[in-house]
Design goal:
The chain is of the alpha/beta class. 35% of the residues lie in helices and 18% in strands. The chain has 3 domains: 22-136 and 272-456, Rossmann fold; 137-268, Domain 2, N(10)-formyltetrahydrofolate synthetase; 472-554, Formyltetrahydrofolate synthetase, domain 3, CATH 3.10.410.10. Pathway: One-carbon metabolism; tetrahydrofolate interconversion.
Length: 586
Amino acid sequence: MAYDATKLKDFEIAEQAEKNMPLPYEWAEKLNLQKDEIIPMGRICKLDFMKIADRLKDKPDGKFIEVTAITPTPLGEGKTTTSMGLTEGLGMRGVNVGAAIRQPSGGPTMNIKGTAAGGGNSLAIPMTEFSLGLTGDLNDIMNAHNLGMVALTARMQHERNYDDAELAKRNLKRLDVDPTNVQFGWIIDFCAQALRNIVIGIGGKMDGYMMQSRFGIAVSSEIMAILAVATDLKDLRERIGRIIVAYDKKGNPVTTEDLEVAGAMTAFMRNAINPTLMSTAEYQPVLVHAGPFANIAIGQSSIIADRIALKMFDYHITESGFAADIGFEKFWNVKCRFSGHIPNVSVLTATIRALKMHGGGPKVVAGRPLPEEYIKENVGLVEKGCENLVHHINTIRKAGINPVVCINAFHTDTKDEIAVVRRAAEAAGARCALSEHWAKGGEGALELADAVIDACNDEVNFKFLYPLELPLRQRVEMIAKEVYGADGVSWSAEAEAKAKMFEENPAYKDFATMMVKTHLSLTHDPTLKGVPKGWTLPIRDVLIYAGAKFLCPMAGTISLMPGTSSDPAYRRIDVDTETGKVLGLF
């Protein structure tokens, strides 16, 4: 049943749908799961992935569908809405289907962006739980991460206060951490610009080690990145042990294993390793697991969620963060390489609104009314903006994957504007479907569902963009030219020195290349729209996530701690003291 999305707000649709949402024991029956594979947590549940993976290990994988997008406006173009709508459309076709999405951060939820549950009749429920911590994974990640910093700062204090003989009595080896070269910081799941740069350890000798430090938002934690790429509990434990928290005064890495805290950090993650089971508004299963940054990390839901979903469902949908130049590229060259899962099709989400922006339309600003050009018909802007669409289609085709363009319909779109997008997509070698899932749910996504089913029957000639043997700087050059459309790459002296060091050390040969840049442009400059020509990608630094096995070349400045706006969402959020219902969250 589809609700009137033009009259009802998202939370009102969710409230109606949640009345009949399957309970944990009903999911067990519906999904043919064993009782001990369901871990009830109120009206939702977690799935014991190790038990499910072991029981279904010999079952063939289902079809694997990835959802990405063109370069978005600051408002986003509805990847999650499309993922939920496609899941509902396939469900309406009688297909055994499920999806996997990321968990939203409390920072954006309480700031400007809001939740990431989709919208209209294509959303994930229950929305309140989804938006306010769900089953505790973010708390587990914060506890595990901050315990690593507790271990580091305590060790630095004790090494300052005790000589080697006293340390030996306490069974401690001197690590001799360089206080000016600490890589780790603290995390909190809010946008708190006041915590970007702090001083800790103020007081006496028993009050810690005084030094500069910082906070990042929880989803930027390396532990979140590790949760997204770990394949099982053993892999998770090993990766956590390799996290570099600092360097000693000789320049050698100091890891969580050196601090003897990696095991305790993993203990906090014993619950978080299991995906949470939610639902679409039309009651298809949705796995929620991990929520890493898409700018600086992998921006995908977890390999673990995909691993069991491909066994549980005949068609499994997963979503990549941001546009195809970031999200799909990392899915293609990192997630697929780490997991061994090969997609059958990629769905490229596009809106007339975003295409007009890339065609030269006025600036789009979140929180402000859209200029008239985005509301009234303007075929010329759409035609010009389709250059961005075609660029992303070509990127997907380079992977040997068949793209399906999804026109995520808005009521202001016109037939002529839609026809322009269809012609451009089909001329570039992609299927194209208009989808009205926001307004009509699964019924509105049937054209998209049929196009995806058809595409899944095509042969896939999957290939990575580069071999792992390719040196880091050559990988970056290839990504910049083949995916972004740059003429080349320029390196700062510091970035090039680091890149040479990583290339010469065999320990980093199999590390993934995790590009860091803005999502608002194909370039490093968020103001450049469409498909810019004649530009060079500047790399100013290279970060290392040793546990996740990422090398992160940075183009531009990316903050690990966003700021809270002057008109954040929390100003409108409250609780009905009679019913306990959360008000104003959506």
